[in-house]
Amino acid sequence: MHKGLQWMALAGWLALGCAACATTASPGVGRTGDLAATADIYAMSDFSRVRKYDAHVHANTMDTAFLEQARADGFELMSINVDYPDFPALETQHAAALALAAAEPARFHWATTFPMDGFGAPDWADTVAAALARDVAQGARAVKIWKNVGMVERDADGRLIMLDHPGLSPVAERIRALGVALIGHQGEPHNCWLPLEEMTTDNDREYFRNHPEYHMYLHPEEPGYEDQIAARDQFLAAHPRLRFVGAHVGSLEYDVDRLGAFLDRFPHATVDLAARMSQVQYQSVRDRDKVRDFFIRYQDRVLYGTDLTLGPDADPDEFRRQAHAVWRADWRYLATAESQRVETIDADVPGLALPRAVVDKLYYANAARMFAPAPIPPASGAGN
Ligand SMILES: [Zn+2]
């Protein structure tokens, strides 16, 4: 129990520290004007007019501030419900999703989730399956499974329930049959299992210095990084037809080579970039061409996302400013050649200046494909 609470607290830091994006632009360094004139890339001035999709946000209140900023900046949203104690109750998240989707159905999309309470009971999987079918009928475009699977929830014998637990298989098959994607967040950033001096970003280093109880490097009795990744991969191998979005770069944020190998192995899998842009930037500061080549090669497999979270206690105006700043900073990095200061890695980060056609996929087409509406279910009886 105590351990579980610790993990919940850690999860909160990860969700809210989100892109916590201590990024500041350095306008004087930019070269986009020149390049944009001669190459097929976007400029900062294209930001608000290009169609975009933030594939990983949390709109946890009926307040329309998130939707308004998305409209102003040209974004559609995938708002993901999560069974996370620092968020409002699942019913509240669900109600907010329905209200916002009703307000602007072409812009606001949502993913449902399911609680792990009662896992192992004979009727658990059927109960979850029925709830998911109801949610998809109400418009849910995906289902989220969170890192409480693998890090918090334990079975009757006290063992952690990993993603490849056979008890989760019926739910995975139901999600596949419903025709929607599964968004999976398993494990933590690679840094969580490293000593402080080897971590790559200041936000990770500072947090784990102040909270050694959450620092898995100090807890070798818990599943390791490779254990989490192996369980996720085993799960995908067992459900090859499942459409899968690995949240937070599939927890492979630290190495684009390894991420590429993962995407090669699982052709139905994609990843989102939520809350891990600084880890990608850490790599591109060292080898910009390698990271740029990765995005071009895997242009159909990566979804732009932030983890921006609007909770009921937030100041809506301040949130709008933050969302706008995060979205622009990320656009500057992915779409233009301008440099910007990224405090969490203490570096000036040149933009990747990805080709427009690639940006259009990362920023829109891939999410639109992965989160396409579920097919209309058969009128009666025909089970699958
Ligand atoms: Zn999230």
Shape: globular
Give the amount of beta strand, in percent: 5-15%
CATH class: Alpha Beta
> Poorly predicted ranges (pLDDT <50, ≥5 residues)?
1-34, 380-384
Count of individual domains: 1
Quaternary organisation of the protein chains? single chain
What is the count of β-strands? 12
Order of helical and strand elements: HEHEHEHEHEHHEHHEHHEHHEEHEEH
Q: Which fold name corresponds to the CATH topology? A: TIM Barrel
The largest sheet is: 9 strands, parallel
Fourth CATH level, the homologous superfamily: Metal-dependent hydrolases
Q: What structural class is derived from the secondary structure elements?
A: alpha/beta
Number of helices: 15
- State the end-to-end CA separation: 38 Å
The residue fraction in helices comes out at: 40-55%
Q: Mean pLDDT, as a whole number?
A: 89
What does this structure look like?
With 384 residues, this protein is of the alpha/beta class. The chain has a single domain, classed as TIM Barrel (Alpha-Beta Barrel). The protein is built from 15 helices and twelve strands. A hairpin with a 4-residue loop joins strand 11 (339-342) and strand 12 (347-350). Helix 3 (65-73) packs parallel to helix 14 and helix 12 crosses helix 13. The relative contact order is 0.18.
